[in-house]
Amino acid sequence: MRLLTFTTGPAGSAPRLGAERDGSVHDLAVLADHAGVRIPHDLLSLVQAGPAALDTVRGLLDGALPRHAVHRLDEVRLCAPHRPGKIIGVGLNYVEHVAESSRTLDTDKELPPRPVLFGKPATAVTGPGAPILHNGDLTAQLDWECELAVVIGRTAFRVTEEEAYGHVFGYSIVNDISARDQRRSGQWFFSKGQDSYAPFGPVVVTADEIPDPMALDLELRVNGVTKQKSNTRHMLFPIARLIADISSGMTLEPGDVIATGSPSGVGAGMVPPEFLVPGDTVEATVECVGTLTNPVVDAR
User: Fold this and answer.
1) Angle at which helices 51-62 and 28-35 cross, to 10°
2) Distances from the Cα of 79 to the Cαs of 15, 34, 140, 203, in angstroms?
3) Each residue's pLDDT tens digit, 256-296
4) What is the C-alpha end-to-end distance of the chain, expressed in Å?
5) Structure pTM?
6) How far is Cα 252 from Cα 263, in angstroms, rounded to an integer?
7) What letter would DSSP give residue 75?
8) Which of 92, 107, 233, 243 has the fewest CB atoms below 10 angstroms from its CB?
9) Alpha-carbon span 216 to 209, nearest angstrom
């Protein structure tokens, strides 16, 4: 399933849980009311409710569809699918990105022996079509990173690589926005954690729809020009390894997001460097998930 959060009214309208199918958005609350069943009314609660709730939703989508439960995709405004409890970023997880980062970001040129992890706060999350905030008083080096996002479905603590995929709910996209000139004594939290620096969406695709997440094409475009183009098979640490490593000392909870790292082609690695400015439009695409589009706006 392709699950999403949307509104049909003006800005500030209450978000609703939906599913995308054949270019239309199906309002799951309306379907549940029509069928006389109860389901969670937001995506995070649905993830937390477990497989039985997901099976109920599948049944609703396969049943009768009242006309007022279905909207054209262009009639709704998509929101971030949900606000994760935590977002765990993975740095230097593509070999070519390790090389470009060592040239331009003063990182180690050697491949990391273990995943490089950092956090992004939930307040950084923004949705499809929402602005990426460019505050020229804080940065002149606003950069992009297209990443496959893994959404956790079951609590994971000290799980093995063999067990890891059993804890995945689904997949989405995170654009790991960074203010490169706000790294502080080697630390990335403020650089990557500012409001709007985690565009997330447009949907969460359930794990059963993507049998091999380690074989997905990724691409990022700025104003229609391709900057990044790669495939998840080039990850240094694959998804199962990431889940096992993170959960070795940190509990992953339903709804948490792992942003699995960026391929080469970031703005800081260009010759000369290129960075986002107000008026730009950024499109991050992951095969089988879709495209996450965000404008860059002046936030001073």
Assistant:
1) 80
2) 8, 24, 28, 9
3) 999 999 999 999 999 999 999 999 999 999 999 999 999 99
4) 40
5) 0.96
6) 24
7) G
8) 233
9) 13
Give pLDDT, residue 99.
67
Measured at the CA of 208, the angle between CA 74 and CA 95, to 5 degrees, comes to 90
Around Cβ 108, how many Cβ atoms within 10 Å? 11
The CA R_g of the chain, rounded to the nearest whole Å, is: 19
DSSP assignment of 145-184: -EEEEEEE-S-BSS--HHHHGGGEEEEEEEE--EEGGG-B
**In the chain, what's the furthest Cα-to-Cα distance?**
60
Q: Phi, psi (5° rounding) for residue 42?
A: -140, 160
Q: Residue 104 has which token pair?
A: 């331009």
Q: Determine the Cα–Cα distance for residues 134 and 222; give it in Å rounded to an integer.
A: 15
Angle at 194 between CA 192 and CA 199, to 5 degrees: 75
3-state secondary structure of 194: coil
Range 89-107 burial, b when 16+ CB lie within 10 A, else e: bbbbbbeebbbbbeebbeb
CA distance 211 to 200: 21
pLDDT in tens, 47-73: 999 999 999 999 999 998 898 999 999
- Residue found by looking up tokens 């995308």 in the block: 20
Closest by alpha carbon to 260, among 244, 245, 238?
Answer: 238
Amino acid at 208: D
Residue 36 to residue 29: CA distance in whole angstroms: 10
pLDDT for the residue numbered 108 = 62
231-243 per-position pLDDT tens digit: 999 999 999 999 9
Residues 6+ apart with CB under 8 A from 257: 84, 86, 87, 88, 149, 150, 151, 152, 172, 174, 200
What length is written for the chain?
300
Q: Which two tokens stand for residue 152?
A: 């956790």
